[in-house]
Design goal:
Elements: E1 4-8, H1 11-22, E2 27-28, H2 40-52, E3 83-87, E4 92-96, E5 99-100, H3 103-111, H4 118-131, H5 147-151, E6 155-158, H6 161-174, E7 179-182, H7 196-212, E8 215-217, H8 219-226, H9 228-231, H10 244-271
Helix pairs in contact: 1-10, 2-6, 6-7
Length: 272
């Protein structure tokens, strides 16, 4: 039987597995409201949405979802999935109160506001994220539309291995351990520049995979073996997106990992 798979992450997991569905190798448990997420706080929030149908304040939706696709229409219940593929691709945490936002949506919002100094705003949010900022909204407070006032209302931090460990433990609990976690592409830029925050995140996830015992899919090993020019867009210069050939290769590697994981779970259940 084809495995029923839920995917939580970015295009780096959604697109390869869509290719595999098109080939008839799996069935995706889709829901239009399950759009791209990046960090573990967003992932936990997304799982809560898929299982409990929680609501969000209207003025925050644009920092969480593509509003043109904001509707909940599951193909299957989340719990019906045989396996859940979860990509953790960022350790930059941003929230307003109890609601976890997407950094890239905040950045895009400010970038499109021509009345503000975008470069100055970016310098400030990078600094505040690195240093950490805790803010507790008063009851009924809304996130400001003014980008610079907004900055002072956000909870901002870089995730460390301890908070990452606690989050993954919660994800394992929420998914009944039916998960494969996927790392980001951990390669230097084409000019040799390294991304230290991405390296730290990927290393921490590998360490925790050994400590906590979850299955990890590391695309970097495949890219290194096959060659970045063949797997990544723009002849290997784009370290965030796969080429068409890369989507096929990563998709086939993922489906092999999925089938192995399901076989192990079934063997364990039979022994019990």
């Amino acid at each position: 039987m084809k495995p029923l798979v839920t995917v939580i992450g970015t295009c780096r997991v959604h697109d390869p597995l869509k290719k595999m569905e098109d080939k008839g190798l799996l069935k995706l448990n889709n829901n239009p409201i399950n759009q791209f997420v990046h960090n573990t706080d967003e992932i936990i929030q997304r799982i809560s949405l898929l299982t409990n149908n929680i609501e969000y304040p209207e003025n925050l939706k644009k920092f969480i979802f593509d509003e043109s696709k904001f509707f909940n229409s599951p193909t299957f219940e989340f719990e019906d999935s045989d396996i859940i593929i979860i990509e953790v691709s960022s350790g930059k945490m941003v929230s307003f109160g109890n609601h976890h936002l997407q950094m890239n949506r905040l950045v895009e919002y400010v970038k499109n506001d021509k009345a503000n100094d975008f470069k100055k705003w970016m310098r400030k949010i990078r600094r505040k994220t690195k240093d950490g900022q805790i803010y507790e909204p008063f009851e009924g407070e809304e996130l400001s539309e003014n980008p610079f006032k907004m900055l002072n209302q956000l909870n901002l931090s870089l995730q460390n291995i301890e908070t990452l460990s606690n989050a993954i433990k919660e994800i394992l609990h929420l998914t009944n351990k039916k998960i494969i976690i996927v790392n980001h592409i951990n390669l230097p830029k084409y000019d040799g520049t390294t991304l230290s925050s991405r390296e730290d995140l990927c290393l921490n996830i590998e360490i925790l995979s050994n400590e906590l015992g979850f299955d990890l899919f590391n695309p970097t090993k495949i890219i290194t073996m096959k060659g970045r020019g063949d797997i990544l867009k723009d002849n290997g210069k784009d370290i965030n997106h796969y080429s068409n050939n890369g989507l096929q290769i990563i998709g086939h590697k993922l489906i092999k990992k999925i089938n192995n994981k399901i076989s192990k779970m079934e063997l364990k259940e039979n022994k019990i």
